[in-house]
Amino acid sequence: MVPSFSLRVFLIFLFILSILIQAQNDMDGVIDWAVENGAFVHPLIEYRDGGIFAKADLAEGLVVTKVPAQIILAFDEGPNGDNMSASRQCEFVKQVDSYLHDPESFWYPYVSSFPTSCQSLGCYDLESLSDLLTVRGTMEAKDVLCNGDNDNDVLGSVVFS
């Protein structure tokens, strides 16, 4: 039996709703993790519906969030604020990917919340990623970014699923 049009629309709605609820739960988990590790989120601030909202009017100059440096993963900077070399960037991507596959990792609650759409580096093909990192040429980028690693999934393994 084929479901009626209205039933199909309702089932699609439920599917989309389940995705949104999971995204909300992931973000709630990240916020909880951040607070447990020294972050501050003002009680009048909340994450919902894919954005950050104030529950009431906020006074000018009110500090609404603080995030300690030790819970920030930065792709474009090294530990001293210097720009990372392309090979270091590749190592960084591999390290983040390893956090994603280790539920016991300190970083797991954070990296597991990354979007799986093309907002993440894992959605770029090597040529696009090389352009993004201002390295010219696909083969050169592969050699520079991955130290000659010929595994085609080295950068694609960052796709968070």
TrEMBL record:
InterPro entries assigned to the protein according to its UniProt record, in alphabetical order: SET_dom_sf
SUPFAM superfamilies, alphabetized: SET domain (SSF82199)
Keyword vocabulary terms for this entry: Signal
Signal sequence interval, chain numbering: 1-23
Alphabetical list of Gene3D superfamilies matching this protein: set domain protein methyltransferase, domain 1 (3.90.1410.10)
Top-rank taxon: Eukaryota
Protein name: Uncharacterized protein
Organism field: Triparma retinervis
